[in-house]
Structure prediction request, 288 residues.
Amino acid sequence: MPATTRSNLVIPEILADAVAAGWPNRIALYGSAAVVESSTLPESARGGDTLKVPLFGSIGEFDDVAEGVALTPATLTMTSETSTVQRAGKAVEMTTWAQMAAMYADPYAEASRQIIEGARRKFDSALISKAAAPGTGGMGAIDHDASTATISYDAIVDALYKWGDDNNDVAAFVVHSKIARDLRKVKDSNGLPLFADPQGGGLPSVLGLPLIVSDRVPVITGSPVKYVSLLIKRGALALWYNRVPTIETDRDILADSTILATNIYYVAHRYGRLPNSDKAGVVRLITQ
Prediction:
């Protein structure tokens, strides 16, 4: 088993503190308004378990009632969908000699950065994979196939109107870097660019839609190559994990070394339909 030596050192306790301190930052879909996030996954959950992911049901539209007539109470219900728990983690082995030498080094900031980045990227990859999966029977995702051409103003508008009159509250427009390059060249009928760079931080936007660029979105090989871009409503995805990643250690007395391990258990889920809607929360826009 490869072991860390004096040239690559880490102090377990300080590393754990550094990981906890750096955890709140977010990347891409993970941490966006498209994702409902909770750290309350039961500690007993293990990889491969099937769990119910909760979702509030709708109380429906307002009732018309005559003067003096009592309202009929509606019940606020909690519905659920099922998803599978995933396990992800990383381990490293460090010799006692390396621990002693670590008193004269400061490697844990970099180690914690890599652990945090790895967890974020794992969450992000799982969320994009869930969002990008084809829908079934109108559940989960709606396709808009505009693959006869590159992305355009009309293609984006047509994709938005797959939601009919409920085409607002889009939390993320996730595109491949090739599509982002094409979007920088697209102009409206007045010759004005659709792409708007962020002002004072935040994300760039296209037609007011927050733009996230990720090469994790699907690429359909063929001639021509096709790209799947994702329009995602607020709260269309859920990320449920059991805790901020912690550092656990164990001793190998024969090798006189310490093994450090980080495990996370999580559920990445795309809801079939959102409350107060009969449509899926994701539109997959397919273009060249």
